[in-house]
Give the backbone structure.
Amino acid sequence: MADKMHLKLTINGEHLETLCEPRELLIHVLRERFNITGPHIGCETSHCGACTVDLDGKSVKACTLFAAQAQGATITTVEGLASPEGMHVLQEMFREHHGLQCGYCTPGMITRAWRLLQENPDPTEEEVRFGMAGNLCRCTGYQNIVKAILAAAAIMNGRDATADDAVKTPEEVA
Amino acid sequence: MNDMTPNREERVANLKGLGCKRKRVEDARFTQGKGNYVDDIKLPGMLFGDFVRSPYAHARIKSINAEAALALPGVIAVLTAKDLEPLGLHWMPTLAGDKQMVLADGKVLFQGQEVAFVVASDRYVAADAIELVEVEYDDLPVITDPFKALEDGATVLREDIADKKEGAHGPRRHHNHIFLWEEGNKAATEAVISSADVVAEEMVYYHRTHPCPLETCGCVASMDKINGKLTLYGTFQAPHVVRTVASLLSGIDEHNIRVVSPDIGGGFGNKVGVYPGYVCSIVASIVTGKPVKWIEDRMDNLMATAFARDYWMQGKIAATKEGKITGLWCHVTADHGAFDACADPTKYPAGFFHICTGSYDIPVAYVGVDGVYTNKAPGGVAYRCSFRVTEAAYFIERMIEILAQKLDMDAAELRRINFIRKEQFPYHSALGWEYDSGDYHTAWDKALEAVDYKGLRKEQAERLEAFKRGETRKLMGIGLTFFTEIVGAGPVKNCDILGMGMFDSCEIRIHPTGSAIARLGTISQGQGHATTFAQILASEIGISADKITVEEGDTDTAPYGLGTYGSRSTPVAGAATALAGRKIRAKAQMIAAYLLEVHDNDLEWDVDRFVVKGAPERFKTMAEIAYASYNQAIPGLEPGLEAVSYYDPPNMTYPFGAYICVMDIDVDTGVADIRQFYALDDCGTRINPMVIEGQVHGGLTEALAIAMGQEIAYDEMGNVKTGTLMDFFLPTAWETPNYVTDHTETPSPHHPIGAKGVGESPNVGGVPAFSNAVHDAFRAFGLKQSHMPHDHWRIWKTANKLGLHG
């Protein structure tokens, strides 16, 4: 067991520090040392994206990054998206459009979508699907996740959120 | 009354009851990272357990040396079978009447098998310690092929029962044979087949796959030695059964065990069984006096925890020249792996596979299923299906297509002329089921019209001509499926798990100010029970769903139930909820009668209140009645307003649906582009259309995965080739299509609200729809059967074998 290192991070606007082993993965430091349990562990091989957090303006998978590599970084997790005024519009739209079921992928999914909409504020359905392809969901089949993200983008761009009929089903149209 | 009174329509809307697209109450927590999954649970002094697993598929264990591991700072204990043996816990009973090693006892039988359990101060130390445990193996011949397992002279896999001629499900005819289970009339079926106009015959393989929920399995066991209580948190789809099993195995009285299923990150059947990790964590907590957490990693999960399917289905289907089906014969070779740990009701070792006559009026049928041991992981769980119904639906829907090909008939028409007719319900199938209700022709016609079936066939024919002229390299496939499910297990008279009847339950307490809490014996893993069960209740008792808390998963507070799998929550616990609600309403009626000074029979129920017949201005709302039940002495009535219902369903429910998939297949790359997917589901009464649609999307995506790429594959040495998400296919948003959903509504006549359940239909019906589309694309070139999964490489090989590469 190596000596512990002094890790300093800014997480969700708060300056936090801890001692950890250099080999500890960022996801474990977040979950075990800081009790930030929104990001989850699904595969430990970077495939599923349940552990997605935002690190210095990029979506990263915290299960395959040493915490040491994040030294000094500014991190946003799903816990940091809501404001005192309420939920983030993405969180609201995931609820509105039934973009989640078991909720396990949801924190990573929303955190990734939050960055995607900063990278590309007005994406097409195809761009959303491509931009979210690093996050797996076993419950929803993605259709309503895509719908939620497009609706959030519409609202953030000042448009009517109901104008997302690209993925509406005949039942809904009827 | 005054003008402020909402009108009836508004009162109905306020309830947010049956049929309403109510937004989910779970989502505020989940979207903000405030879920509470098992790995989020942290108890003071908690230790971490992890397994040393076998790298071999079949080997004798010569020695286990834990010295170096125990010398590592932070390692508390290393448990082996020898440590568990004095407690009688080195083996445990399976749900299927077999027994299973908890830790390897003398030999290992599959790769990834649990050999030793390391208990350490944290997960990093545990991972280090695993590497330090030295296990010496002598490898043995490996059998991964169930047909070879039954050959004369095949290696004996289960030495512990090698001489046992009788298993839990009858005679064993070979040392690697588990059971032969039969249903139907074999002689009559064979007679029909031998004299039929036309017989189509094929081997249909439904490959081994895995439910792979995004959250793996895990638990935290916490033994409080002072008060003698064991608390077990874990990913349990059936928490009450886990409590009973834990009591029977450990000898701890059941009242001293509390099992809690917290939020569960998807189950899909993976979290029904009892796994060695649970047993070892409990033992480790008892031994150390500290809480012990065990969480699988993804590789553990895929290698060792509860696979699904692996059925080799030999079929014969007989018909007249006109296409009227006269008989169905099926023999299955079922690969159960090293231990028979299938999660089926006890009396059904092949689950409900005998629903395999499907949606068709088949006068005579026979099914035989041989269960076989191999050097693969145990399991055989219902991956988003009701006990082998997926296998059955795939089998019959492939056989129908193969028969259509042989008859040179349109497969949609062949289905239509063989459907059970509306007036035949309740319908008794040749294999012993009583289908409750259905209207297949209406659903089929609606589906074919919605996709313009005739237009699609015309386009397909034109494409084929263009292909033959060399103008395109893409073929078009139209995948048809009409499935009938059998869910809602089940009647206690013939359905039990480890002796526990498969009823379910609901307990309701109405609070004085007119809100309520309902507790159920089931447990949501994403289905949204907190939302939908409140809707059922809202319509029954006239209290808004927003004022009803639904709680599940804590065995200290919830009534006993058999849990959530096999689409049983709505058919069984949903019924219990409605009936408990009706008991509340019956008492409420008496209270209202007292308050209004009329006879009980002078009142009628109106949405959220009892009204005096013929005097609509005289009424008592449910909120007023609730308050009165707590603050007035009512002659002849106990105070309070509570009810509990244990529901034993009189029959299963039979949801059905029509799915149509259209794909374009590039014969040179093997890439299948899904252009259109239409899904019509009939799940009886619809509780929450938004949730139903979400279930259908999700189930179809699982079906897409299974049909088009997902498998648990082994090499001939028994190595798992698909142990990570690199190799085990889970579709992303990129390769998943948009689905069009639709419905008809044929209520179940025996269910209190007519609901049938829907969660699993899309997996059951989706797989044959995708697979039939692939087969249909190549039908013109004579393809009869190519086994799933239809990944690009296998499709390319199919095209190559058919000579389409010039």
User: Anything to note?
Assistant: The longest helix of chain A spans residues 106-119. Chain A has two domains: 5-80, 89-163.
